[in-house]
């Protein structure tokens, strides 16, 4: 069986959120053209779902055109849509661990993860990781991974993520920026099939510092750092003023933009392509994608959840696995 034919493993995420609902909607849209197996408790799926329990992932491609393939993971019990139950925390974690095992053992081609609810995991299982990405890095034995937000219109990578804006200048070091750019370049080559990726790096300050008038980090180290950085065959340019980096003509000049902080990266992609944004983790020894939204407890079970981001995440995982 080739890597392209292997199914994607989709971990269920928080069962009280929209994860189960959008998983079924994604299956209805994709059917056999993007086979995936759902890792979770079948009791948490919409009641009219035509479930097919599988014990061997080789079965998934055969059944997915007609039924929703499920590799069962035990949970403590039923769930109330819109209200997380900490008793289900161990099941959520086990589903993620099972997905990692399936990709690392070669049974699955990629891992796609539905949104989790961190507080429920902390309350129910003492979850000690800042989030999904850090837990996956731990399971894979990697010290540094990189978050990319990708859509058909734009790929962005924040060098610093969930920290206060006031902490960014101190956290952003040459060592960190080099690691982020290197991992991004490697991921674009190995998982996106871009032999010589073009990476544009945004400046930290408005107008990339404007010669020191709006901040001195560019003058003091960022300009020289980027000029000296060698990640061939990737081409790295910058620092670019962030306010002119994301219009249509500018986006044609690079394959990914590395940004200095969270909102500098996420505002452009969520403005340009909110429903199709996909969270990609670069630096893992396997392909991992996730929809770029949360559990959406407020609409869970109401039939309102939009599966577009999950569909894009599954399709992108399939494409990345084929390139790896």
From TrEMBL:
Main location class: cytoplasm
Origin: domain of life: Bacteria
Residues where a divalent metal cation binds: 162, 207, 262
Gene Ontology MF terms: 4-hydroxythreonine-4-phosphate dehydrogenase activity; cobalt ion binding; magnesium ion binding; NAD binding; zinc ion binding
EC number assigned by the record: 1.1.1.262
InterPro entries: PdxA, PdxA_fam
Keywords: Cobalt, Cytoplasm, Magnesium, Metal-binding, NAD, NADP, Oxidoreductase, Pyridoxine biosynthesis, Zinc
Subcellular location: Cytoplasm
Cofactor: Zn(2+); Mg(2+); Co(2+)
Binding site for substrate: 132-133, 270, 279, 288
Catalytic activity as recorded in UniProt: 4-(phosphooxy)-L-threonine + NAD(+) = 3-amino-2-oxopropyl phosphate + CO2 + NADH
Example of a GO biological process term: pyridoxine biosynthetic process
Pathway membership, UniProt: Cofactor biosynthesis; pyridoxine 5'-phosphate biosynthesis; pyridoxine 5'-phosphate from D-erythrose 4-phosphate: step 4/5
Pfam families linked to this entry: PdxA
Signal peptide (UniProt feature, chain positions): none
Cofactor binding, per record: Binds 1 divalent metal cation per subunit. Can use ions such as Zn(2+), Mg(2+) or Co(2+).
A Gene Ontology cellular-component term: cytoplasm
Function: Catalyzes the NAD(P)-dependent oxidation of 4-(phosphooxy)-L-threonine (HTP) into 2-amino-3-oxo-4-(phosphooxy)butyric acid which spontaneously decarboxylates to form 3-amino-2-oxopropyl phosphate (AHAP).
Subunit structure, as described in the record: Homodimer.
Note: The active site is located at the dimer interface.
Family classification: Belongs to the PdxA family.
Protein's recorded name: 4-hydroxythreonine-4-phosphate dehydrogenase
Naturally occurring in which organism (per UniProt): Tritonibacter litoralis
Gene name, Swiss-Prot/TrEMBL: pdxA
